[in-house]
Amino acid sequence: MSLASPFLDVPAMGDYAYDWALVDVETSGLIARRDRVLSVAVITIGPDGEQTGEFSTLLNPGCDPGPVEVHGLTVERLQGAPTFDQVAGRIGAMLQDRVLVAHNAQFDYDFLAHEFARARMWLPVSQRLCTLALNRQVDPPTDDMKLGTLAAHYGVSQQRAHDALDDTRVLAGILRASLREAARLDLPLPLVTCPPRTESQFSPKPPKTPCAYRNPGRLTPGGPLQQGMKVAITGETAHARAELVGRAVAAGLNMMTSVSRHTSVLVTNEPTADSAKARRALAEGVPVIDEQSFLRLLADVQPGTAHEATAVGTAPVTVPEAEQVGPVEVVSTTTAAVPTLEAATLPTASPCVSVPAPRQSGPSAGSSDKPLAGRRVLVLGGVHTDAAAARTRVVELGGSAAINLSASVTDVVLLPGGEDDRRMRRITALELPVRDLHWLASPTATDHNAVAVRLQDPHVMPRGGVIDLPMPHSGPAPEWYITAGWAPQSDCGIDLVAFLLDEDEQVTFDEDFIFYGAPESPAGTVRLLTGGPAEQTIALDLASLPPATRKIVVAAAIDGATTFGTVGAIQISAAPGSSGAPLARATLDAATTERTMLLAEIYRRGAVWRLRAVGQGYDHGLDALARGYGVDIAD
Fold it and tell me: Which of 91, 152, 100 is nearest to 130 (CA)?
């Protein structure tokens, strides 16, 4: 297998030449900390594009093999196969000092990491490359990003789907073609650094049972405790901390590990102690009681108000046919609910609008009255406010505002200073039409034959736009992937986070805050995935969320003093499954000085879930945003 091609000779590969280890695993399920690897294949390729090694084997996991109808690996087929620890040394030697490559690489990486941990070994991988993330950057004109779809697009032969070795050979062909496209577009590779991970990090945490009651507020002087109150403990206690927590949980209280403005009471025997919780309680005016007072109040906890239960998934929502799609309808003029932050600087909010289902492309779809329908426009140059206004105009005209150069970009709008953008050299070589700002005043939709046609384009959502997330009539509900991408940054890091909120716009407990330090909820229903330095995803198993979770807020935060005015626009998309076709896409601009930005809300409305594109920024950092939702990340 060679990466060489007439369009990309190996000596010129430069930044695209690495020692690669292409990997595919077949597994007994989808949760790495619980399920097992049933088969694994590894192909190694050198910087010169030549294959240097190949290994594959079935594995005996010692458990039920799971969905046999998918992978075909029965108990009988796996009998007599080696266990993972028996082949871990050979696999590790092939991965050592190479970039791990996989389709949905975090999935394969996490499964291998857990298997190596069970074998009491390190996973010797320091970098990985996801061909899904790479192709999301390239953006070929395919209907989805599944392995078979990309193989057909790039002309790679696929013999046996869900066979680890054949899938890895197909992956090699897709990697070759993807690298060729990345070089043609001068795209940086979305390499992800993989720091060493210890065995303890792979020990699954038992899911914390969500408190069944709403937070009634703070403890009043001389008043009783009430079910649902949020209680934190700090300092030394006479009774074991686990005993205090257990008794409080049994009484219906919500035990927290941090203090916020939503905390009902702090329990401490040292009220003047200089702990982070005590300082926060003093700053927020949270009542403080000692251990003995807490135990007395525990003897008579008053009944609370249960969270409202909402049936979800009982009324499937189907995507209407193209002829059923009507005009955009304004359903509300209120802004999205956001946490209360002192002196927050907010951009002017646009009305919340409901958007129709994605429009069907192709000859049968009919013509559109939007002159930029089906076009993807990249805006270069200009100060941030002017660039943001130009991208907004693109969306108003029915187009999609790109944030990076890709294979789907059809037009480039050049603002003052844009001629110095490093991408202009490649845009000129690709002979893309370059327009000035006047073109957006009265564009002409020319050269439509040059626009790559997909069977279904993602709907372009304006800021404030709302769309229902379809549910299947039968079968399991899809896991929804909310992906955020931005222009690669050299001087700052951007982190994607998620807050799982109840009907009072609060996190039920600390584990309902998903971020880089806690990338997965205890039950695995919400996960943070990293596709590269300029792409992160929140994966949501909406059907498995507890009834108390009414909304998931997805936000981005900048690590450092840089602002979103410097970073530029953030693009979000929503897709069913890791490689599914995006249902909707939005390009969001903050103003100039914001360091945190609310990107999207996914919320219950009756029996369905809805997605809202928010695009609301704050000058405050992530710590202030988190406190507004009831989490103190300083602890």
Answer: 100
CATH assignment, 10-202:
3.30.420.10
Q: Is 437 left (phi over 0), alpha (psi -120 to 50) or beta?
A: alpha
CATH 3.30.565.10 fits 364-450, yes or no: no
Helix (H) or strand (E) holding 501: strand 493-501
Helix (H, G, I), strand (E, B) or coil at 530: strand
| Burial track 400-433 (b if 16+ CB lie within 10 A, e otherwise) | bbbbbbbbbbbbbbbbeebeebebbeebeeeebe
Mean of pLDDT values over 579-591 = 88
Q: Identify the helix (H) or strand (E) that includes residue 25.
A: strand 20-27
pTM: 0.78
Query: Furthest-apart CA pair in the chain: how many Å?
Result: 81
Q: Hey, what are 310's tokens?
A: 């909402």
Q: Could you tell me which of 609, 505, 487 has the C-alpha nearest to residue 556?
A: 487
pLDDT tens, residue by residue, 279-338: 888 888 999 999 999 999 999 999 999 887 654 443 333 333 332 223 333 333 333 444
10-202 and 230-298 share one CATH topology? no
Task: Express each pLDDT in 543-577 by its tens digit.
Answer: 888 888 999 999 999 987 888 888 889 999 999 99
Amino acid in position 635: D
Q: What is the CATH number of domain 230-298?
A: 3.40.50.10190
Q: Which CATH superfamily is domain 459-628 in?
A: sav2460 like domains (2.60.60.30)
Q: Where are the domains of the chain?
A: 10-202, 230-298, 364-450, 459-628
